[in-house]
Amino acid sequence: MKYIFFLFLFSTYAFLTQAQTEGPLENVVITYQKKKTQVRANENAELQVNVSPVDVRKFKARGFVRYSDFGARGDSKTDDIDAIAAAHAFANQHGLMVKADAGATYYIGGKERTAVIQTDTDFGTAAFIIDDTEVQNHQAAVFVVGSSLQAFKLEGISSLKRNQEKITASLPANCLISVTNSNVKRYIRFGLNQNNGSPQTDIFVVDKNGNVDMAAPIIWDFEQITEISALPIDEKKLTITGGRFTTIANQAESKYTYYSRNITIKRSNVIVDGLEHRVTGEGDHGAPYNGFLNVNNCAYVTVQNTILTGHKTYSTIGAAGKPVSMGTYDLLANRALNVSFVNCSQTNDIKDSKYWGIFGSNYCKNLLYDKCTLSRFDAHMGVANATIRNSTLGHMGINAIGSGVLTVENCTIYGRNLINLRSDYGSTWQGEFIVRNCVFVPAGGSVTSASLIGGSNSGQHDFGYTCYMPERISIENLQIDDTNHPEAYQGPAIFSNFNPQMTDASYQEKFPLVRTREVLLRNVTTSSGKALKISDNPFLFKEVKVTTY
User: Fold this and answer.
1) Distance CA 414, CA 149 (A)
2) Are residues 412 and 530 in the same domain?
3) Co-location of 70 and 210 in the same domain
4) What is the span of the domain harbouring residue 222?
5) Complete DSSP assignment for 3-64
6) pTM to 2 decimals?
7) Engineering a disulfide at 454: which of 48, 222, 409, 417 sits with its beta carbon 3.0 to 4.6 angstroms away?
């Protein structure tokens, strides 16, 4: 055919990647007519891209395209998002790499346009200015890293069991399985942001014979399944390198209208290397952010050698009708497995409480921090297995609920607790904590009574699951810098006072918290010279066996 047309509509892309935002992600028509290469948007906001046959041959011969090939100015003033999106759309169809122009500064205004990345991309030394002061759709990502592979529904599976090792399915390749039972609610949140919970859901990897990767096991019993799908996992790694991004912060009302003007990763087997993100223009109000890097519905993603920025904390009125600080993130992971952050840091002081903790996650498994200096690690609606090593955690420290093994080693932690079990989700961890070779500076060195394991659970709220504290906690070679402490300080507690009302057997828990069985301590030292105690409320933990060896 003389002319070949490629039309990519949102409905197709959303089906492939289960996109959550509304509006077009990639809406591009590419033609190959014997006239100059050009990009324009029609009255329906559809990109119409013509690539001359001469340029097609040139681009294929050199193996990559540049944004300037599609009209990007890179002058820091002209809105280049159409040219950027067009370059990626062409590269996706021809399997070509995309390279930013060295020394360019690309301005990206508030137009609703998303560039879809499906091939290796080198942002290099180029700068990108993302202006959020006037945005058409705050939920539309600037870049989506997507897969060309297609998700499909699984038939014949009506139930699943926790830790089930195999599903009855014949698959074309290793697949990411997403499953939901909308008839059961979990994570029924307590407190200022209270809610009625979320449908029971899980995500796990199986091979083509249906064998579950038990390093990221099924964590719930599914007596019913209302939705289950499989997405083949891309075997080839996709690499994104470089780039100096600056967000001009939004000036919207301070309420929960999360901005997602970001790089959303919805493809498995991705490496992000050497990216930088900064934030300017934050004032006395603004809407929160959903992560500049948002890892979503995928597996095997590594973010390395990357510099990020914590966002200023704003407050609003929460679900309980009272003021509440809004979580706002530069890193976010949702429904993602085997996600690693390696040698990552942030531009602002990790101990400055004006800035919210930089990372949040939901429904994830096997998260890793290695050689990171960041203000927070957080497992919001559960994580199955997490490792934090060779890292420094700032004012919001380590916050987690979930299951499996949480390992913290060779770290310095400046949070209020060594590990905080989130009270809004029941302070639950069904598994084990392992802490080795760490330094704990309670509350960043402020005057405080130190406690290692923080949390709270009255036993009166139904969170949608039985709440557990870690069955075993092993702590070896821990230095507690409790130099600054109150006058009446009697030494650091292993556990904070999880329930001040429960001081004897007369208190009845409607939804009992299953407490820790065993604590193993080896070479735990304090700057104050005071010994560890079990808790300020020893009755709660009277059955805990503490062994020093």
Assistant:
1) 43
2) yes
3) no
4) 152-232
5) ---EEE-HHHHHHHHT--S-S-S--EEEE--SS--EEEE-TTS-EEEE--HHHHHHHHHHTE
6) 0.94
7) 417
